[in-house]
Predict the 3D structure of the following.
Amino acid sequence: MPVLLAFGDSNTHGTPPICDLAVYGRYDRATRWPSRMLAELGQDWELIEEGLPGRTAQFDDPVMGAHMNGRVGLQIALHSHGPIDVLVLMLGTNDVKARFGASPELITGGIASLVDLALDPVVQARHGGFRVLLICPPPVLEQGPIAGQFYGGRARSLALPDLYRDLARARGCGFLDAGAVIAVSPVDGVHYEPEAHAVLARAVAGAVLAL
């Protein structure tokens, strides 16, 4: 049975569009894209969900905590799970927040560090070899209750797809531009509506099968 590890942030976790910052929400398994992707792949697959709201590709968050740094999280996930056959990696949304002051190139560099962690020969040998699918998240909108956190984020996120695509090509990874198939919700400009989760699930399943 092939095993897939989905590693990401709140949109992998299944956080719905935020209306009230004090209210925690999560879509059920029938709605969020990783479990819907599993249904598309079929019962022969096993899914490991590793979505953490607020996770970045490379930054210790001064507000949410150092554990938001995806470098640490991915190392833990790759050593606590396995063997895996596919890693689906979708991060970068939180890296465009104003408080990190990161250029698109720096954000892509953080993604490159995660890909390199995954492709490290020791890690690959531990799992018997696995493929990586890199997903570029859709561009954010600067609106809704968390707009201030993402000040300037839309311009940064619009520059990411070409950079991610080139990185995936250079590292021999699969690639999917999520912004080509879905858009963020206008409610908070960051998270996805249920319909977008369904569309993304089908697109990711197709990309996984094409690896």
